[in-house]
Every structure is written in structure tokens, then in C-alpha cells.
């Protein structure tokens, strides 16, 4: 998922092209896919919200295509310096749309393969985005929704949020990078225990285990997320991007190679305008005013 192998990049690019084509076809029919995903700009922050509250923001092909398109566009927009992913209503995302799975029986495993390819392209795009991506977990995060939260750079949960895998309840194995992220976050045995028993974690326990970085009271959640996003959007965006790339690569290469990567990236950061501003601000004993350049 974090590999930069050419074949992986080609697959993701093909999926993005197909998603864009589906959006164009939907618009020609007078139905925009933007309805299931809403993107709002607030300064340098792009807030991307899953918008199927009547289905607890359950993931289906339509939502997958719209999410991939929205995240890709925000990741590529130089005016956007922070992304926030959230859900409408009382759920972040309840995972796959299980009711729609019943229609897959006649189509066989190929339909699930297509869904997984789209979800995995989204996860890879979140990880490759050259700017911070915040998961604002406003409610239940299950299955693919849990995977999306784990893929983000920072996860903040409302006190009422809950986390669970849920795959075993319908006879499926995890996807969306769950086995990659969860085992690294909590260890293989604890991850397997969560998988076997579909254990439901309240937000406080998820924070204890390092799955989220902060838990906010429900009443303060929106304001807290806005403050966090504003802080990240006013930070040294290029340095954030270099750090994110380094952490991605650290998961798949030995120490010596990682040390060389760090040498290259810190040298690049040292040539940025943000670095010059940071040094001046330090010497002048004032807050730095980063521009993301």
C-alpha cells in the first residue's frame, strides 16, 4: 500500500481513471456522485464527508468512486494543505454496505475484487497524499471505515465513537489495509483477537491502544477538529510531506536505506522557504508563519 512499485502506481492510476469515468457517466444521467461524498473548503482545509447517513455511511461502489475522486483532487490541489475525512450523522462509516452484498451472489468473487481494488486505491491515495490527512471519527468506524481511519495520518475520535472489524460476522477476511495497519499499531496477537471476536472498542480504549491520538467530548468535537486542521494547514507542508514519505518507506526497508532517505529529505527541506522562515522566527522569538513552500 505504501510501496512505490511501478505496477502498484499503474493500478491506482487506472482505478482513478475508471472512477472519473463513472462520475462523468452519472453526471450525464443527471445524478452526480458528489451526493454521497461532500467536499467543503475552509481556507486551506478540505473537509471530505461521507454522506449516506441513512446507511451509516456504508461503503459501496458509488461512494468509493466519489471518495477516490475527492481525495485525489484535494491531494493534488496546492491550495489545500490539510484534508479532513469524516461522516455525516452518527457514523464515520459502518464499513461495506452489507445489504448490497446479497446482490453479488450471482456475480461471484469478481464483484468483491472490484470493490477491494477501489478501496485499496483510496487507501494508497491517502497514504501518498503530500499533506496531513485527519480522520475525524464522529461515530462508529467498522470494517472499511476502520481501515480508512487507520490509513490517515492523525485520528481523532468523538467520545461516543466505536471501532470494530466486523468482517468475521459475515464470513469475510479484512481488507483496506487493515492487516497492515492494525498489526503494526497494536501487535499481531491483539490484532488477531480483534479479528476473531469482532471486538468493539470504545473511543477511550482505542486511544489507550494508540489507534486514535485524541478523544474529544461530542459537544466539542467539531470545534476541536477545526482547530486541529487549522493548525496543520498553517504548518510547514513540505516538511510534513517529506516526513510522511519517510514513515511510509520505513515500513518496508532496512535501517541503512532509511538513513539515506532521511539525509536526502532533510536536505530538501533545508532549501525551502518554510525552513528559512522557521529559522528567522526562532531567532526573533516569534511564532513562525509557514506558507507551505
Describe the protein's architecture and organization.
The chain is an alpha/beta fold. It has two domains: 228 residues, Alpha-Beta Complex (2-enoyl-CoA Hydratase, Chain A, domain 1); 48 residues, Lyase 2-enoyl-coa Hydratase, Chain  A, domain 2 (Orthogonal Bundle). The chain is 51% helix and 14% strand. It contains twelve helices and ten strands. The strands form two sheets. It has a six-stranded mixed β-sheet, with helices on both faces. A four-stranded mixed β-sheet has the order 4-6-8-9. Helix 1 crosses helix 4 and helix 2 packs parallel to helix 4. It is globular, with a radius of gyration of 19 Å.
Biggest β-sheet strands, sense, barrel: 6 strands, mixed
How large is the count of helical segments?
A: 12
Give the averaged pLDDT, no decimals: 87
Helix content: 40-55%
Query: Radius of gyration, Cα only, in angstroms?
Result: 19 Å
Order of helices and strands: HEEHEEHHEEHEEHHEHEHHHH
CATH superfamily of the largest domain: 2-enoyl-CoA Hydratase, Chain A, domain 1
Strand order of the biggest β-sheet: 1-2-3-5-7-10
Strand content is: 5-15%
How are the SSEs placed, and which strands pair?
Layout: H1 6-28, E1 37-42, E2 45-50, H2 61-76, E3 82-87, E4 91-93, H3 98-101, H4 109-128, E5 133-137, E6 140-142, H5 144-151, E7 154-158, E8 162-164, H6 178-186, H7 188-197, E9 201-202, H8 203-208, E10 214-216, H9 221-233, H10 237-250, H11 255-269, H12 273-284
Parallel strand pairs: 2-3, 3-5, 4-6, 5-7, 6-8, 7-10
Antiparallel strand pairs: 1-2, 8-9
Helix pairs in contact: 1-2, 1-4, 2-4, 4-5, 6-7, 10-11
Amino acid at each position: 500500500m505504501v510501496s512505490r512499485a511501478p505496477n502498484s502506481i499503474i493500478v491506482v492510476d487506472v482505478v482513478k481513471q475508471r472512477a472519473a469515468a463513472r462520475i462523468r457517466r452519472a453526471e450525464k444521467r443527471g445524478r452526480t456522485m458528489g451526493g454521497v461524498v461532500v467536499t467543503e473548503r475552509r481556507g486551506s482545509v478540505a473537509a471530505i464527508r461521507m454522506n449516506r447517513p441513512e446507511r451509516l455511511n456504508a461503503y459501496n461502489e458509488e461512494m468509493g468512486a466519489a471518495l477516490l475522486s475527492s481525495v485525489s483532487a484535494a491531494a493534488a490541489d496546492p491550495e489545500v494543505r490539510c484534508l479532513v475525512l469524516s461522516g455525516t450523522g452518527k457514523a464515520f462509516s459502518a464499513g461495506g454496505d452489507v445489504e448490497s452484498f446479497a446482490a453479488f451472489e450471482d456475480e461471484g468473487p469478481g464483484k468483491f475484487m472490484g470493490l477491494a481494488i477501489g478501496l485499496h486505491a483510496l487507501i494508497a491515495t491517502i497514504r501518498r497524499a503530500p499533506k496531513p490527512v485527519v480522520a475525524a471519527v464522529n461515530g462508529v468506524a467498522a470494517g472499511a471505515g476502520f481501515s480508512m481511519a487507520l490509513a490517515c495520518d492523525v485520528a481523532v475520535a468523538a467520545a461516543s465513537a466505536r471501532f470494530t472489524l466486523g468482517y468475521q460476522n459475515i464470513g469475510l477476511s479484512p481488507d483496506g489495509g487493515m492487516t497492515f495497519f492494525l498489526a503494526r499499531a497494536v501487535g499481531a496477537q491483539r490484532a488477531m483477537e480483534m479479528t476473531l471476536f469482532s471486538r468493539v472498542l470504545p473511543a477511550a480504549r482505542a486511544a489507550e491502544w494508540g489507534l486514535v491520538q485524541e478523544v474529544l467530548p461530542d459537544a466539542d468535537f467539531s470545534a476541536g477538529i477545526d482547530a486541529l486542521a487549522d493548525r496543520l494547514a498553517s504548518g510547514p507542508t513540505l516538511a510534513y510531506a517529506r516526513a510522511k514519505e519517510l514513515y511510509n518507506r520505513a515500513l518496508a526497508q532496512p535501517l541503512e536505506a532509511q538513513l539515506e532517505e532521511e539525509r536526502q529529505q532533510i536536505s530538501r527541506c533545508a532549501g525551502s522557504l518554510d525552513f528559512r522562515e522557521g529559522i528567522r522566527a526562532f531567532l526573533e522569538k516569534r511564532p513562525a508563519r509557514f506558507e507551505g513552500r
